[in-house]
Amino acid sequence: MAELYVLDPDGDLIVIHRAFRGPFAPWYHDEGPSDIRDGEPLPPPELRFKASAKHLAMAFPRFKKILEGPYKETNLPRPEVTIEGFDSEALEILLNIIHGKNSKVPRYLTLDMLAKVSELVDDLDCYEQAEVFGDIWIRQLERSFPQKYDRDLILWILISFVFRQSSLFKSATRIAILHSPDPFMTLELPIRPTIAERINRQRLELLERLVTKIHEVVNGLCEGDRCSFQCDSMTLGALVKQIQPLRLWPRPSEPYTELSFHRIAGTIRSLRSPHFETHLHLAEAEEYSPARGTSSYSKKMSKKGGKAMPSISWNTEIEAEKEAVANWEHECSLNNLKHLLVPDIDCLEHSVNVSTTVAISSVVDPGTNTTDSTTTNSSLAANTPLDIKIWTDPNCTEDTFLVEDISNPYGNQISQAKLRTAYGGAR
Can the peptide bond before residue 343 be classed as cis, meaning omega within 30 degrees of 0? Predict the structure, then answer.
C-alpha cells in the first residue's frame, strides 16, 4: 500500500499519483535513470493524498467534472481520482497551495522543479491559485536568466508562458530565434506547437535573409567591376576565407542546421579587411650627387593626385635615373568589409524585436475568464488582445511583408498582420 499524505484530515477524496519515471526534459542525448530491472520495466511509483474534494473542484476544472459524474458509478468505498505522469514533489507542492498549507510550500525552487510545477499548472489549468508563489519563485531565478540557446532557455519559455511573464517570454523566444543552431526543440515539454512552429519559421526567415545578403556581396564581387581587379579579388578572397569556416560557402540551404544568426552576425561584425598599397609615380630626380652617391627627390606633386610627397634618396646612379615610386594605402568603398554587411545585420537583428518574438500581450481578467478546459489546455482565452508595435530606423530601408501574427500564441486561428520590418540598410 502506498504511503498516504494527509492534506486535509477531514478530506473526502483520495488522489492517487503515479509518477513519471523517464528523464525530465532530456537535452539532446541525455540519459535519465534506468526504468528497467531484469528486462522488465519498473512500475511507476505511487503516492496517495487525502484531500478535500471541494478544494480540488474549485481549483481544477477537470476535477470538478470528474467529481460531478463518472466517479459515482464506481463501487469504491471512497472517491478516488488518479493523476498519471508529472513529478511527485511538484504535485505535492501544488496540492499544499490548493489546501492553504502555505507553511509547507517552499519559497525557493530550482529551475527544473519550477518547470515541473509549471507543467502541472498548465495541465490542471490552475494559474490563479499558483500565481503568487510563481512570482516569488521566478523573481529568485531570473537573475540567472540564460543568454544563449540551451536547455535552461527552453525551460524558461515554458515557465514564463504558464505564469504569464510577458517580458521574460519575449526575451526567451527572441534568444531562441537568434541563437538556436538547429530547429527549436520542445524537450517533450507542453510548449504550444504554434510557439515552436513560429520560432522555427522566424529563425529560417532570418537566416535566409542573412545568407542572401552575404551572397549578394559575394556575387557582386565575382561578377561586377566595383573597383580594380586587384581590389575586387582581394576583398572577395578575404570574405570567402572568413565565411567558409561557418559553412556559409558554398551557399547553405534550409533547414540551416548548425547555423545560428548570432554566431554568423558576430563573425560579420569582426570581419578583417585586406590592406594593400597602390603605386603612385613621382617626378624625376632633380639632382644626382656623385660625391654622396645619392639622388634626391624633393617634395614634388604626385602625377596622380597632386599630393606633396616626402623626399626619397637612392644609393646608385641607376636608381636615380629611374622614376620614383611611392606606395600609398589603397582606399575605396570595398576596403572595409564590415561596412558592406554590418548595417544590414543590425537591421535584421532589430527586426526581431517587432515581428519575430512571441509576445504575451495581456491576460484575461479572472472575473471574465471563460476558458473551458475541454476545448483548450491554455489558461488564456483564444481572443487575447494583440500587441503589435512598428519599429523603424531611419538608417534602414523598409520592406513590407505579410507574416502570421505571432503576438498571440494561444488561439487556434492565426490572424494575418502586415508589419513593416527593418531590412536593407547600406547597399
Answer: no
Predicted TM-score of the model (pTM): 0.71
**How many Cβ atoms sit within 10 Å of the Cβ of residue 227?**
17
d(CA 413, CA 409): 10
- Say if residues 355 and 422 touch (Cβ distance below 8 Å): no
Segments in 69-192 forming alpha helices (H): 88-98, 111-124, 127-141, 151-162, 166-179
φ/ψ of residue 345, rounded to 5: -60, -45
Q: Which grid coordinates belong to 18?
A: 503515479
Checking 410-419 for CB contacts under 8 A at 24+ apart, the result is 410/192, 410/376, 410/378, 410/380, 410/381, 410/382, 410/384, 411/382, 411/383, 411/384, 412/376, 412/382, 413/382, 414/194, 415/386, 417/386, 417/388, 419/354, 419/355, 419/388, 419/390
Answer yes or no: is pLDDT of 320 > 70.
no
Cell numbers at 24, concatenated: 525530465
Q: At what angle do helices 229-243 and 337-351 cross, to 10 degrees?
A: 50
Length of the chain: 427
Lowest mean pLDDT among 131-145, 211-225, 314-328, 335-349: 314-328
